[in-house]
């Protein structure tokens, strides 16, 4: 089994971080194929950068999908997830959607921790869009950058633990979800210090992708995720333009 791990951020260090966690989670015989976007933000954090990341995600998926059985979009905002599910014949998963659903299978109420106050606003909208607002017990922000986390994971780990303990004690959540691609190694770092399960998106997405590949569900032939009709396009990368050939 080959799983494409497509990072719509343009920072290679983020790709390397999530690829390491994905490989540690994957079953024997599963190959992780990491790929980084050609264009866009170094670290996606604003709505404008998120809009560009939608295109970047489809671009990298189209270029790297050959021979893969499923794909994972390696960004917390699940860039282009719905479009990718329409465009490709195999399962496509997002980090945050995967983590939230695994959390809902592990407890009644989850609490989310994210790194950026700016990105917390669209994150709340994502939770609502996935129909999980009633399962969300609260959201906390560790206000540091992904680069800060990679440079000083111990300090950020202490902050994550403090926010998680608040969610458990005050908001009465059963599961803590760490939101963000660079949070991938953090779950293992803080789990032993907390009394509830800690879920992050990369491990959740790898496990769910393997399961969906084994289920062999067919591509929808009707509805909103049926194959794309033929469309003429201008200026797209040839690999992406070919997806509109019908």
Tell me what the structure shows.
The protein is α/β, with parallel strands linked by helices and 246 residues long. It has two domains: 2-95 and 204-244, Rossmann fold; 96-201, Rossmann fold, CATH 3.40.50. Helix content is 45%, strand content 15%. It contains ten helices and eight strands. It has helices at residues 12-25, 47-64, 81-87, 95-106, 117-129, 146-151, 153-169, 186-190, 201-215, 238-241, and strands at residues 2-7, 31-36, 70-73, 92-94, 110-114, 136-141, 175-178, 198-200. The strands form two sheets. The protein has a four-stranded parallel beta sheet, with helices on both faces. Helix 1 links the parallel strand 1 (2-7) and strand 2 (31-36). Helix 1 crosses helix 9 and helix 4 crosses helix 9. The two termini are 26 Å apart. The model has no long low-confidence stretch (mean pLDDT 96).
Task: Kindly list the characteristics that best describe this protein.
246 residues; Rossmann fold; 2 domains; 4-stranded parallel beta sheet; 10 helices; 45% helix; globular
What's the layout of helices and strands?
Blueprint: E1 2-7, H1 12-25, E2 31-36, H2 47-64, E3 70-73, H3 81-87, E4 92-94, H4 95-106, E5 110-114, H5 117-129, E6 136-141, H6 146-151, H7 153-169, E7 175-178, H8 186-190, E8 198-200, H9 201-215, H10 238-241
Parallel strand pairs: 1-2, 1-3, 3-4, 5-6, 5-7, 7-8
Helix pairs in contact: 1-9, 4-9
